[in-house]
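Notes on consecutive records. When two proteins share a document, each keeps its own sequence and its own token line. Never mix them. Below: protein one.
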Amino acid sequence: MSRRLKFMSFNVRSIQSGFLTLKEYVVDCAVDVLGLSETWLTPDIDSSSVFINDFNVVRADRNSRGGGVAFYVRNGIAFKILHSNITAVLEELWISVKVNQRKYCLAIVYRPPSANVLDCFHQLTESLTNLSLDNDYAIVMGDFNINVLVNDGRSEMLNCFLESFDLSQLVKEPTRITSNSQTAIDLLMVSSADIISGYEVVDVDGISDHLALIFYKYTAAWKQEPEFKGWPRSSKKGSNYEFCKACNKDFICGKSKIQKHSSGKQHSNW
């Protein structure tokens, strides 16, 4: 018996302002892994205010207004936090999800519109090089503020990045529509075409001026993974981890377990 492992990527432009609508949509659509950019959360905001039943939330916040990225992972899906980094050129959060003995390296990212594009891809290159090696697949999603419907210097740099890692960028239609523009800036990059069985661009009404990406993979129905432990990698000074509430936690198949450790402690293998 097979089922769809369903992912969603969305620039929410303040998770708190439309949270009830977002929560209802995620539940109704049976999303398994949700990646959000521009959460607009800060470290002083408790994750209980953005809690979704049967999900764990992992956040990387700015210390100031705007930006921020987050993942929600459904209970029963084994995952571990790999890395997060909040800089002026790129905000990124990486996790590894394990389903039916396959490991998916997932990133949710946000590049501010004014950020240097070349510096953004330098940072992303370093992360992807270090983090994707121990995984079967890599999926990078989020708002890059690079319009792939236009051939310019930014899209050329994006294409160079894709070629260097043999990635495919799947989004070909507008993801942000305003009264005077239609741009495809919310992107989906995959390391292999067979990762994704299908995707669609959808309007989550009343939340954001961005459209959401829903994509899925047909897979055998999975059982809850056995307990495993994983520690985040050391990250550059200023990077922010928030595992559910305030400190660092070790997630075990949907049940959060508080651990006290130094940021330099090495994570264990799967």
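Protein two starts on the next line and is unrelated to protein one.
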Amino acid sequence: MRMLIAAIEQARHVKGGDIAGALEAVRIDDGGTPAYYRQWDHQMLRKTLVLKVKDKITDPWDWLDVVATAPGNSAQLDALYGTPQEIGCRMEPR
């Protein structure tokens, strides 16, 4: 939702094509790693959390622990989601 709001603000329109173009340029902070849409396939790239249920749950809203994040750094983010050759999907330029 944050990405969509940021794209609408950047596009200054609610037309689909303008928003799609803005989504290709918007980057938001996602806990120290950028989250963004890749231009060539419109895949949203963001870190993935590996979670574990806590051994003892004392709060109904706090029952997961973050065990790890993947990738370990933002430089590896694009590689995690695959290359154009591996994916085989290509969005036509606007």
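For the record: The chain has four helices and five strands.
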